[in-house]
Amino acid sequence: MGRRLALLVTAVCAVLAVAFIASRARPVPVPDGPDGKVACVSYAPYNKHQTPFDETLVVPPAQIEEDMAVLATFTRCVRTYATGQGLDKVAEIAHRHGLGVYAGAWIGRKEEDNRKELDRLIAVANAHPEALKGLIIGNEVLLRGEQTAATLARYVGEVKAALHHPVPVTYADVWEFWTEHPELAEAVDFVTVHILPYWEDDPTTVEEAVAHVMAVWADVTRQFAPKPILIGETGWPSEGRRREDAEPSLVNQALFIRGILTAAHDTGAAYNLIEAFDQPWKRALEGTVGGAWGMFDAERGVKASVAGPVVERPDALLWLAGGIAFGLLPLLATLVRRERPGAAGLGVLAAGGAFAGCVLVLQVWHALDASRGWTEWAVNLGWLAASVVIAGAGLRLAAGLPCRLRAADLGFLSTCAMAVASLGLVFNSRYRDLPVSMFLIPAVLCALVPLEKQPAERRAVALLLAVTGLGVLANEGPLNTHAWMWAATALLLAAPTLLSGAFGRAGATAPAAA
Asked: Can you list the residues of the chain whose pLDDT is less than 70?
């Protein structure tokens, strides 16, 4: 009866896992946008190997030239945020490709650095006024608390006074900071607000996000009339953690972008999407989601589109086939060795192997999406290797075959790892992923193997995991389905050890191989 139950559980898990990965390859119909191109996109020139934190970096003009050629097929305008590291060349190059430019100066805490930025921006504006739609003096400086509204107004006035030709000048920040500092509107020619529903204190679903953006735009338009309003940043991420019911995905990114295009077309709202290219360096600041706002990926491949159906992962079926093939290796090894686990045991190896192979695919996807430096690559690839071992051993144990590894030890290792991850999510969750796939294999397979009574310290760790897993759910809120899956996986992983104190018996694990 134990093998039959294991077969049922693994079969259900395999079907769900296969269906999930296969769904990533399904074309999803999304309403087309009304225009062939978007109005404007934020442009940071850094490729997958570059970062603005490299003070020696100067982006070659040829790289900017290539980027503008790509963007000219998608947009009519670009917005920049700074003038250093070669960005002072953007206006001239973009103009050659028929693109308008909102040119920005980065304003921070240091007056000396701010002065250099402003001087370079003034030089660009005086040299290439024909290329410019506007100048943006500072980005979310009030949000970061690095300058006062009075200082920003002074900077705006100094730039205006230094221009040889009239170019509109503004400051950009999250919309709440404009409503808190309405006096700043007197200094600017137009008001630039950021409206990012995913990052709001009260995130919205992608279906509600466009309506939220336009409602805020309408309120700001009324408050600051007759000043023109530019939505300086709006967008949706294609990868990363869920925030309440705001789900990053390629399909949702397309839904949002095309919705904004339609709303802007209907209302006449001026907007700029964030951003042109994925910026992997932002993952160090904002986690996986920070690097996944691009219309194109970091290698300049197309991500977003304004027409046609959207496929989340076009290569998903190839990954699925490879994952299942890899997951069935324990079954193949058993047949080659002529071991006889019985029909139910063979079924567990087949269904459980398919399930494990699919989950390993999800782990590889997460590693590719989330890993930045060598530390994260080491953690993600190291745990991927551990998952392969756990899957192989767990399948043999669940099928009733001898194994040198004990289910109790595999479960304890996994419990410790997930408890550490849960503690991080409880105390500092904003930019951390919830990688459920990393712990699904031990949670499911170890639950199928009865345990002898576990030592008190192992039960204490399991209790910690159960409590912190529920703590993650409490932090994230009931709308976050990722948090529900995390909590459920944590409880499933902790349960065998916790229950072993009441129901465990000696010798319950499968015997070790000779």
From this structure: 1, 501-514
